[in-house]
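We were asked to recover a plausible sequence for a given structure. The inputs and outputs are reproduced exactly as logged, with field labels preserved.

PROBLEM: sequence recovery
POSITIONS: 617
GIVEN STRUCTURE:
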């Protein structure tokens, strides 16, 4: 939610900020803005509703000359997307500029206080309140310097924020702070970069500081980076990290969209997720995060998986995997429900949080709650060093590489890979998975990237053709049983989020308890029907659909006869053990959603109303 870029150095600040914003546009893209500081210390602010491309259309006097500036790409929370609500926001005296990612929950109370003191507001945003609160602290005491005023203001607000602030009277100084939203500082040779993630500065430096929760920093070429705690101004020694990210990972690499690139990266991302962990020849799964705490898992009363969206779907499949192979009871909860329903959690529980971004506000809050209640908390995140990864007791990274398309694809299959490894590892350890079965399952898992490659090769063109027939569909049903019920939910989510076609996922057997009423000749039904996994029951479900003239798109195993004979469209995937079928079956469903969305002219990588990291409730 919202992307922030800042720069001070010797290069053209306009170019650095604009190019950086383009890389962060996945975080929010309903408006964009930039502020540059002129050589005589005056601000030039340009902002607009729309995308970074719209911002570029507005001419800038300081392009080419300003060496310091910052920008923002927005996902609206307070106030509609509009020029006025776009960031940066200026204080009433015009001297302070601020960009913000997050939500100031008590902004209304502060706004009332400031209004009584004579402040006026041009926007509906919480951000404009914060920038004026900073001015207020400088107004009421002329001894209060700019960084101190920012610190005072941050101590008054609650909610989530990552901010970057400039002051005309403090030329060359950038003040940043964070609580609940990420912020990285890139350290170059005589230049500093600020960004919501490292992608805007990866080609300029490999050294970065990830600002910790509750910390702020004052950055200038003259004095370097001074980090302090927001609550009591204690000095913090910066921890400089080496970036692993490469430019290639964050570019489209010849694909039309990031989503398509990420779908095609899955053989590699699954392989990378297993690398060093799955040692087939030695017959072991090495996962330090699990192994170091294996007794916690073994003695757990239950495992609770918390997540949102696609990660929640992965969690549902995790439940099937862990219960089948490790025989440990698992519950899967939406993080947003878990955190507010006063759940019963004890120190005998293990809570696994799944999150691609590692930033999702609901997942983060649910995890904190579980931690407070004494549960052991384990993270499955894709973004290294993300907030969730940092607060967990242990965890496993998915190593899928940066996922930029808003619709999650490769992160999902990487999450399934980790959950499979965990289930097999725990099952082997606690004796529920015998050695022979373990050996044959891990050999099969090792071959999954090859099978995905085969699916991509054999179904890509076919799925494109199928997609053409459904461009004008208004509804879709997705059905599956067992492990493929969550895969059906995920297929439906993919379609609705990028094509805006209404889609529902259901366990196939539930169809007759309601959704069957929707079926007629206009209803497309995607049904996942692999050989292993209640095949006979699925055959009956397909018969029930065909009896009502529904259009069946069946995902079946190669050589399938019965379902294929009844289906209107057949997509063949290689046969696997049931537990692997959601990984393999998800790939053609991702392609189907992708091509339907492309043919409908939708913006696949930046679907309307969505953002990649949901850092607000
Ligand atoms: O980063 P997270 O995995 O925590 O994100 C959770 C959801 O917001 C995310 O999966 C969302 O549903 C995606 N847009 C799905 O494609």
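RECOVERED SEQUENCE:
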């Amino acid at each position: 939610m919202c992307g922030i870029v800042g720069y001070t150095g010797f290069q053209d600040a306009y170019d650095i900020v604009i190019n950086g914003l383009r890389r962060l546009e996945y975080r929010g893209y309903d408006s964009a803005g930039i502020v540059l500081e002129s050589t005589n210390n005056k601000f030039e602010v340009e902002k607009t509703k729309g995308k970074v491309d719209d911002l570029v259309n507005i001419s800038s006097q300081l392009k080419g000359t300003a060496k310091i500036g910052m920008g923002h790409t927005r996902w609206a929370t307070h106030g509609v997307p509009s020029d006025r609500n776009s960031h940066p926001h200026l204080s009433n005296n015009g001297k302070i500029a601020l960009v913000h990612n997050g939500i100031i929950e008590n902004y209304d109370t502060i706004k009332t206080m400031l209004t009584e003191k004579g402040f006026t507001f041009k926007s509906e945003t919480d951000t404009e309140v914060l920038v004026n609160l900073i001015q207020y602290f400088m107004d009421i005491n002329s001894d209060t310097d700019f960084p101190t005023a920012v610190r005072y203001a941050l101590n008054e607000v609650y909610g989530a924020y990552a901010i970057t602030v400039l002051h005309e009277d403090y030329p060359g100084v950038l003040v940043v702070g964070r609580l609940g939203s990420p912020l990285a500082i890139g350290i170059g040779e005589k230049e500093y970069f600020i960004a919501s993630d490292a992608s805007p500065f990866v080609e300029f430096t490999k050294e970065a500081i990830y600002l910790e929760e509750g910390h702020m920093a004052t950055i200038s070429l003259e004095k370097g980076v001074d980090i302090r705690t927001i609550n009591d101004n204690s000095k913090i020694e910066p921890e400089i990290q080496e970036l692993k990210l490469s430019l290639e990972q964050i570019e489209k690499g010849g694909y039309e969209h990031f989503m398509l690139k990420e779908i095609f990266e899955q053989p590699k991302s699954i392989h990378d997720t297993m690398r060093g962990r799955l040692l087939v020849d030695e017959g072991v799964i090495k996962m330090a995060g699990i192994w170091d705490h294996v007794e916690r898992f073994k003695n757990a009363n239950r495992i609770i998986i918390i997540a949102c969206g696609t990660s929640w779907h992965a969690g549902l499949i995790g439940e099937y995997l862990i219960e089948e192979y490790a025989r440990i009871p698992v519950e899967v909860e939406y993080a947003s429900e878990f955190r507010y329903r006063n759940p019963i959690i004890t120190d005998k529980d293990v809570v696994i949080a799944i999150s691609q971004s590692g930033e999702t506000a609901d997942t983060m809050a649910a995890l904190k709650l579980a931690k407070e209640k004494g549960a052991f908390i384990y993270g499955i995140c894709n973004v290294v060093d993300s907030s969730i990864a940092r607060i967990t007791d242990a965890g496993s990274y998915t190593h899928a590489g940066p996922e930029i398309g808003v619709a999650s694809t490769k992160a999902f299959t990487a999450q399934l890979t980790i959950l499979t490894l965990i289930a097999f590892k725990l099952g082997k350890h606690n004796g529920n998975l015998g050695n022979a079965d373990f050996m044959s399952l891990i050999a099969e898992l090792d071959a999954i990237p090859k099978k995905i490659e085969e699916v991509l090769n054999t179904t890509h063109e076919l799925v494109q053709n199928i997609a053409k027939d459904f461009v004008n569909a208004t509804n879709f049903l997705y059905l599956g049983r067992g492990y493929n019920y969550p895969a059906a939910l995920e297929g439906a989510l993919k379609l609705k989020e990028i094509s805006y076609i209404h889609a529902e996922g259901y366990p196939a057997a539930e169809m007759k308890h309601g959704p069957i009423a929707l079926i007629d000749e206009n209803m497309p039904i995607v049904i996942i029907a692999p050989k292993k996994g209640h095949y006979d029951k699925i055959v009956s479900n397909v018969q029930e659909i065909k009896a009502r003239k529904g259009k069946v798109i069946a995902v079946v195993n190669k050589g399938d006869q019965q379902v294929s004979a009844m289906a209107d469209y057949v997509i063949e995937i290689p046969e696997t053990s049931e537990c692997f079928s959601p990984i393999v079956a998800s790939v053609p469903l991702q392609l189907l959603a992708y091509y339907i969305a492309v043919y409908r002219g939708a913006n696949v990588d930046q679907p309307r109303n969505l953002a990649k990291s949901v850092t607000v409730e």
